[in-house]
Every structure is written in C-alpha cells, then in structure tokens.
Amino acid sequence: LIERAAEEARHTDRLVDAVARYRDAAGHYKHLLTRRYRVCDDRGRVVALRGMSIDISELVRERERSLSLLERMQMVAETVGVGFWWRDLEAGVFEWDEQMYRMHHRRPDEGPPSLEEWIARHVHPADRGWLSARQEVHRSEWNPASDVVFRTLAPDGSERWIQSWTRRLVRDGHRVSLGIHVDITERRRAEQRSELERQRDQFAIEAAGIGVWERRAPDGMPVYWSPTMYRLRGLDAD
Fold it and tell me: Chunked in runs of 10, what are the mean pLDDT values of the chain (238 residues)?
C-alpha cells in the first residue's frame, strides 16, 4: 500500500492519501493518514516526496465500533422485517436501506424513489388517493410524528400490509423526515381471521335466539346486554 501510494505520488500532480498501520516504540500499531506530493526541479524531474502524517487511530476505532453497532442493528432489522428510510426535502436527498428495497420489491440500482414515485409505483392502487392526500397534509403542517397502515402489491399480485412510523424535524433549516416500515401482513391476516370468527359466532348466537349478558362481580351491576337480550324481553336497546 505504501509503495503504491509513493509510486502514484511520483507520477501525478495530485495529493495522494493512504491510511496504513505503523508500529510505535511500545510495539502497538497506530493508524496514520499520510498525504504525499512530489517535488520537482526546474527541469520537471521528480527529486523528492513530501508529506505529512496524522494519527487517526481513535477515529478508526470509533468507526469500527459504529460499524459493529450498525451491523447488529441491521441484523435485528432484517430478522424482524424492519426497513429504515430518511428524506431531506430541501436537499432532495432520499435514502433507503436494503430491507426497504426488498419489502417494496424495488431494485437497489434504481435508487430510492421520490415520494410521488413511491406512492404511484409501490402503494396499492386502492390506497394511493387517501395516502397521497394524507402526505400533503403532513408536508404542509409538518406534524412531528405519525403512523399509518397501507397496502402494497407483491410481484405475484398478492396484497401486503405495511405499517409506517414517521418522525419529522427541522435541522439547519432543512425539513427532514425519517422512519421505519414493518410488514404486518401476517398479523393483519390473523386479525381478519379473528374478526371473521367473531362475526360467525355472533351470527350463530343471534340466529339461535341466544342472549348474552355480563355483570360486574362485586355488585352485580350489568355491564353488557346483547341485542337479543333486549328482544327476548320486548325492550328497546336505546
């Protein structure tokens, strides 16, 4: 690495940087950033290399700690199916992590979409209208936080349910929004199955003319009567 950097510096007018480990007197390795440039004589011949070195060992250690934490966070996010995103409206900068691309069936080489493209391409047609209107309200009022559940379409045509949590703030005069997307399709399907079972049970109970009631244990006060309970007694539920 050092030999390549020195050779490159001898053959270019640019500054050449290289980071390498050097062992100190105590036998410990330090990371040094060395910047080199060539010195030429009046005839343009390279006669020397000059430069400076900066100890960046602490920066390297901090970066390694940050990368380790990021890797753990990404592993957790992938395990639970969480996608992270952020957007700077004034700068027009958008970022998606890998899970967001997988969740919305978008190729990473396409880059993250604008808000308009995301709604037009990745949101279920039945949810585009109200979600677009909701986004316009949030953009104009800049609410600090919100959450919403919407649908997407998988490549096979099946519906997927996504829950989105968004945090909005202002940094250095820029409106920045960031948040997460979670695929809650299985949970949503379980809720729908549970609701369908409840409706079936309710239908069977009412069809059989069964009244359902509930009383509070300490004092026996009624807390619930089903509609059939009123009909059995000829009473108006109101």
Answer: 89 89 90 90 90 87 71 63 85 87 92 91 94 91 91 90 91 87 86 83 82 86 87 89
Burial 76-102 (b: 16+ CB within 10 A, else e): ebeeebbbbbebbeeeeebebbebbbe
> 3-state SS string over the chain?
CHHHHHHHHHCCCCCEEEEEEEECCCCCEEEEEEEEEEEECCCCCEEEEEEEEEECHHHHHHHHHHHHHHHHHHHHHHHHCEEEEEEECCCCEEEECHHHHHHCCCCHHHCCCCHHHHHHHHCCHHHHHHHHHHHHHHHHHCCCEEEEEEEEECCCCCEEEEEEEEEEEEECCEEEEEEEEEECHHHHHHHHHHHHHHHHHHHHHHHCCCCCEEECCCCCCEEEECHHHHHHCCCCCC
pLDDT at 171: 83
Sorted by sequence, the CB contacts under 8 Å of residue 24 that are 6+ apart come out as 30
